[in-house]
Design brief:
Blueprint: H1 2-33, H2 38-58, H3 60-71, H4 76-95, H5 101-110, H6 113-140, H7 142-163, H8 166-170, H9 172-189, H10 191-219, H11 227-239, H12 241-259, H13 271-284, E1 290-291, E2 296-297, H14 315-328, H15 332-356, H16 361-372, H17 375-381, H18 387-405, H19 410-416, H20 418-438, H21 445-457, H22 464-485, H23 487-494, H24 506-511, H25 518-535, H26 540-558, H27 562-565, H28 575-590, H29 595-617, H30 632-635, H31 637-642, E3 649-652, E4 669-671, H32 681-691, E5 694-699, H33 708-717, E6 719-722, E7 731-736
Parallel strand pairs: 3-4, 3-5
Antiparallel strand pairs: 1-2, 5-7, 6-7
Helix pairs in contact: 1-2, 2-9, 4-6, 7-9, 9-25, 10-11, 11-12, 12-15, 12-16, 13-14, 14-15, 15-16, 15-17, 15-18, 16-28, 18-20, 19-20, 20-22, 21-22, 21-26, 25-28, 26-28
Length: 742
């Protein structure tokens, strides 16, 4: 009865632990049985991790007792006694070969029960001795083993993706989960060391820079007398010759990748809006688009300020393009060069700005290099729209907020640098103001900054009133911006709460798709999260970058209207922050290993970065690809030379005010775009019956804008003049007359 009571009492006290252990084993075997199901692997691995965390957190004493028992070796006297009692049986057991297995079994059956048990106990004692030695070694070196396990998993995942190894792909999800846990635990265990080493490295860099700055005039007296050259050489010397030369090379590489073949292809997508709006500003000094066909402003035709003729959107960028026209003349190159320059400046300023946010120079250079060769950033720098400008403004907004709210303690600023602090606030508001003019997506920064400032400073002693006052100023200025730009109306247009279907995860994929391979980026992001969870109070700048990153994902997934925003270009300004987090995580991990290992890791990841990005970059310059680079000028020659202005109509997508129909005096134009113009099959049949003769055109990359019924009708009944199957222009051209209309 006593035993039953003890057992029931023990079960009562440990029922939760037993259930958790049972659930852990269930999850473990569930993972092994369903390795192909990514959701099962991730969910069950998370459950196992939580169970382990529970026992480490709340059952530390019990675990320590178990470990001590496992580590504890049998006493020498006990082993000796068991040895003398059982050596005879043990000798016979170990001396038998495989051929004498049956004889061994017969011999064991003849042994007395006590003699046999003594032999077994002796063997068990020896096994326990060696097991305890191995276990003690593993326990002592556990963090080293975990860290090198992480490296091994990274290597296997990377090679598996490069060479498409089926065995690696089968276990890929499990390996990613294990890599996240091992990498996260490695960073967590070394978090204090990482933090101290970063601070030490930053202090060393700052002291060295200050010393070089002071000694420059003595070391270079002749150069110090030349005004402009003096400033540049002084910066290079102060920064360090190696760092400054590498930065210049990175900027030059980024610039070359952005400018190569810039004028070798026709305007794409919405570049026509920028082209005609900039020309209107150049010729007339207003926001009315220029009509290339009639070679005149559309001001007189624009009674209701329709975007088709009145285009004030992103006017700072349009103004810069108009100045480019003054210098280089009107062309594809001069329209795009502004974006190239702004995209290159993003590379340069990212180094200086991120270097100020507790980031060592090596890591800042790596971030700049990753931005320089990033496929999407190159693509949108070469695209004559405002997106590269938006990226630069968002980066400066981050910097101004960092200087205003984070970099120096608020009490110190209150006493000594009050004016300087609020100068940064003014610059912050101006940059947000400019960002709003350029694109609506920059409004994401406003709630991030307000929430971050309020929550982070809420409980600080001695400066609470000051922070409330600062927050009040921030809210007041934000309110003024909201009033000036009618932000509430804009938000109503672009925001709608929803549960994100699978296709909207596209936004998340854009952010985790670089600088390395997607799986590797996910692992490094989670590893960074482990570090941030335990150091967020000290690493304020890193926390701010992560807040911008995570809030942007939430906004795009749940709030911004995908019908108007589902494109990588609308989230490209957040890419520098995701790259910052991933590169920072990689830098942290590379610092945890021995010098030679760190160099090998760094070189390997750098080669991986280059190979992965350059394999994508090549597609940007494939100008012979007719879908990516439609040749409007060549395709539309047949229209401009044969168009009968008296009784023909031109129908198509993006043909109004086209740069490639300039001075053709084609006045009768109809847009057949089904999106904004809501052009359907009924409208089409009515128009072709009314006009009876004409031309129809669209580029292959814009074919989705044409209603499927309209396309089927055209392909079936009208005569194809150019396009797929006839030439390599990538532009479909059709002719019709009354006899073809059915």
């Amino acid at each position: 009865m006593d035993k039953i009571k003890k057992i029931s009492h023990w079960l009562k006290n440990n029922i939760l632990d037993i259930l958790i252990i049972g659930l852990t084993f269930f999850c473990f075997f569930n993972v092994l049985n369903k390795l192909d199901d990514a959701f099962t692997v991730i969910a069950n691995s998370l459950a196992i991790f939580i169970a382990i965390w529970y026992f480490i957190k709340f059952k530390k004493e019990t675990i320590n007792k178990i470990i001590q028992k496992l580590i504890k070796q049998p006493s020498p006297n006990k082993i000796k006694l068991l040895y003398y009692n059982g050596r005879s049986g043990a000798f016979h057991i170990f001396s038998f070969s495989r051929q004498h297995l049956w004889a061994a079994t017969s011999y064991l059956s003849t042994l007395s029960k006590q003699y046999f048990l003594t032999t077994i106990f002796y063997l068990f004692a020896l096994l326990k001795k060696y097991f305890s030695i191995i276990f003690r070694f593993v326990y002592k070196k556990r963090w080293e083993i975990i860290s090198y396990l992480f490296l091994l998993l990274l290597l296997l995942i990377t090679l598996g993706q490069f060479f498409n190894w089926s065995r690696i792909e089968k276990y890929q999800t499990l390996m990613i989960v294990m890599a996240v846990l091992s990498g996260g635990l490695t960073i967590w265990y070394n978090r204090n060391r990482v933090e101290k080493e970063i601070e030490k490295e930053k202090d060393k860099e700052e002291r060295a820079e200050e010393n070089r700055k002071l000694e420059f005039s003595d070391k270079f007296p002749k150069i110090n007398k030349i005004p402009v050259l003096r400033n540049f050489i002084k910066w290079m010397y102060k920064e360090g010759w190696g760092y400054s030369v590498i930065l210049i090379l990175i900027v030059l590489v980024g610039f070359e990748l952005r400018i190569y073949g810039l004028g070798n292809y026709s305007f794409q997508d919405d570049e026509g809006f920028t082209n005609s709006a900039a020309a209107g500003y150049l010729f007339e000094g207003n926001h009315y688009r220029w009509d290339w066909i009639s070679w005149n402003s559309l001001k007189e035709e624009c009674l209701d300020q329709n975007p088709s003729c009145f285009y004030p959107r992103s006017f700072p960028y349009t103004w810069l393009v108009s100045k480019s026209y003054l210098i280089f003349g009107i062309s594809e190159f001069s329209t795009r060069i502004v974006g190239v320059i702004l995209g290159t400046l993003l590379i340069l300023f990212s180094y200086f700005i991120f270097k100020k946010t507790q980031l060592p120079k090596k890591a800042a250079l790596l971030v700049s290099f990753a931005l320089a060769i990033n496929y999407l950033l190159i693509l949108y720098s070469r695209f004559a729209r405002m997106y590269s400008f938006v990226g630069l403004i968002v980066l400066f907004s981050f910097y101004f907020f960092y200087e205003f709210a984070i970099r120096t303690d608020s009490l110190t600023l209150l006493k000594y640098e009050f004016k300087k602090k609020y100068i940064y606030l003014i610059f912050l508001v101006l940059s947000l103001y400019l960002g709003r003019i350029l694109h609506t997506t920059t409004l994401i920064l406003i709630p991030v900054f307000i929430l971050f400032y309020f929550i982070y400073n809420l409980n600080k002693k001695g400066i609470k009133k000051f922070n409330y006052w600062g927050l009040g100023v921030l809210l007041f200025l934000t309110g003024i911006i909201s009033y000036l730009f009618n932000i509430i109306a804009v938000l109503k247009t672009f925001i709608t709460f929803r549960y994100p279907p699978e296709e909207y995860i596209y936004f998340l994929k854009v952010l985790i798709d670089s600088p390395f391979m997607k799986d590797l980026n996910i692992i490094l992001l989670f590893c960074f999260l482990f570090f941030l969870l335990f150091t967020y109070k000290k690493c304020k700048a890193f926390l701010l970058v992560f807040a911008i990153f995570i809030f942007s994902i939430i906004a795009y997934l749940y709030f911004l209207d995908p019908n108007q925003m589902i494109s990588a270009k609308y989230i490209s300004h957040i890419i520098p922050f995701s790259i910052f987090l991933i590169v920072l995580s990689f830098y942290f991990l590379s610092q945890l290993y021995k010098a030679k290992t760190s160099i090998i890791i760094f070189v390997f990841m750098l080669l991986l970065l280059l190979s992965f990005n350059f394999s994508e970059i090549k597609s940007i310059y494939n100008f012979d690809n007719e879908i990516s680079f439609p040749k409007y000028e060549k395709a539309w020659e047949v229209i401009t030379h044969n168009f009968d202005r008296s009784n023909e109509v031109l129908m198509g997508v993006a043909v109004q005010n086209s740069y490639y129909l300039q001075k053709s005096n084609i006045t009768n134009i109809i847009s057949i775009r089904q999106g904004y113009d809501n052009y359907k099959f009924d409208n089409f049949t009515l128009d072709i019956k009314n006009h009876k003769k004409g031309w129809i055109t669209w580029s292959l990359d814009k074919s989705f804008h044409v209603d499927s019924d309209i396309k089927s009708y055209i392909y079936s009944n009208f005569r194809k003049i150019g396009g797929q199957g006839i030439d390599n222009t990538g532009v479909e051209v059709f002719y019709f007359d009354e006899s073809m209309i059915k």
